[in-house]
Write a structure and sequence with these properties.
Elements (H helix, E strand, L loop, with lengths): L14 H4 E4 L2 E5 L10 E4 L2 H9 L7 H16 L5 H16 L6 H21 L3 H28 L5 E5 L6 H12 L3 E7 L6 H12 L3 E5 L4 H7 L4 E4 L3 E2 L5 E4 L2 H11 L3 E4 L24 E2 L2 E2 L12 E4 L6 E4 L2 E3 L21
Helix pairs in contact: 2-3, 3-4, 3-5, 3-6, 4-5, 5-6, 6-7, 9-10
Length: about 350
């Protein structure tokens, strides 16, 4: 098996603890209950993987690994069919998995498309298709983790030697790599994590990774960022993104926009990490996912609002380019107004296919 780029990262950032195909099933770490419980959801067919994605069993970049492992499971399901029928089955699976959630279809198609290409190659060579997809996924993850490590190096350059950083939601790989690089450079960084309702990814996931990797970490509620920025002298606000549109608009977990506004007003730079998405030439191409409004009327399963009240739950919001100090990529930091420059030297993006 190929050497892996997840060495030295926190428990939940290791590939097999994100999602993994084994013995005819896909197991996915249930991030809805982690870290209070370490439980896995087991999927016996690829449509159960789709449901897990839709139910937010895994979030942030977790769905990309889960989608790939779902393709490995689909290959296992159709292993006894003719080659033609296997390709037909896997093509259907690739489409359905990539469309599990509407806002990330563009990136998901790169993931499932790469798996589909790997499966066709394996069929031609007479190899086990599921094993080939798993191996392909490890290679793709290694490539992406490596690129994110470069992003982390550029990002950490923006941190003071002793300072504080505010995050938003759970940036997955960049969180671990950012802290790994900061530790390598001897930077003493305090982390402030807004809780990120209604699933509390900031409080449960980001804060857990930061604490596990040895950093001073404080959880705050979602209505505290502006006060904390000013009172605690926060130096940098940073987040990942679910989509970085070519026109400079940033699509990320709902709440990012308001923190970016507070950062701009307070004079704090906001650096978003990730490669621009060619699949989104303008923000108009993004469909914001609306989720079950009932989730905002409760907290981790405990009802907090009176019966009869309405909720409102857009999963993501949009931050305009004028609030973004820079887009931190694997090749450097770009202004949000000139993201085409990223691709001039043949860069393929964070989620490029690996064949």
């Amino acid at each position: 098996m190929t050497e892996r780029a997840d060495e030295g990262l926190a428990f939940m950032l290791r590939y097999e603890n994100v999602a993994w195909f084994e013995d005819g099933k896909v197991r996915i770490l249930d991030r809805r209950v982690y870290p209070r419980k370490v439980e896995f959801v087991y999927c016996s067919n690829y449509r159960e993987v789709i449901k897990a994605l839709q139910d937010m069993v895994t979030q942030s970049a977790g769905p990309y690994t889960a989608a790939a492992m779902g393709m490995a499971l689909a290959a296992y399901e159709c292993r006894n069919l003719s080659e033609e029928k296997q390709i037909e089955y896997l093509t259907t699976a690739a489409y359905e998995i990539s469309h599990a959630r509407p806002t990330t279809v563009s990136r998901m198609e790169l993931i499932t498309g790469g798996c589909l290409t790997a499966s066709k190659k394996a069929l031609t060579l007479g190899k086990n298709v599921s094993d080939a997809i798993v191996e392909h996924t490890v290679k793709a993850n290694n490539l992406r983790y490596g690129k994110v490590n470069l992003m982390a190096e550029h990002l950490v350059e923006m941190f003071p030697q002793n300072g504080s950083v505010m995050t938003q939601c759970f940036g997955e790989t960049i969180v671990g790599m950012m802290l790994k690089v900061a530790k390598q450079q001897g930077k003493n960084i305090k982390i402030f994590c807004p809780e990120t309702r209604p699933y509390f990814q900031g409080a449960r996931l980001t804060a857990t990774v930061c604490h596990e990797m040895g950093f001073d970490t404080t959880v705050i509620t979602d209505n505290m960022p502006a006060y904390v920025m000013k009172k605690e002298n926060v130096d940098v606000f940073t987040s990942a993104a679910d989509a970085i549109c070519m026109d400079g608009h940033i699509v990320n977990k709902v709440g990012t926009y308001q923190i970016a506004i507070a950062a701009k007003y307070t004079g704090i730079p906001y650096f978003v990490t990730g490669a621009p998405d060619k699949g989104h030439p303008t923000v108009d191409t993004v469909k914001i996912e609306m989720r079950d409004p009932d989730f905002v009327l409760q907290a981790m399963g405990v009802r907090t609002a009176a019966d009869g009240l309405k909720g409102y739950y857009p999963a993501f919001d949009i931050t305009p380019p004028e609030l973004v100090s820079g887009v931190v990529t694997d090749t450097g930091i770009y202004t949000p107004y000139d993201l085409n420059s990223y691709f001039k030297d043949g860069n393929m993006g964070e989620f490029e296919m690996v064949i």
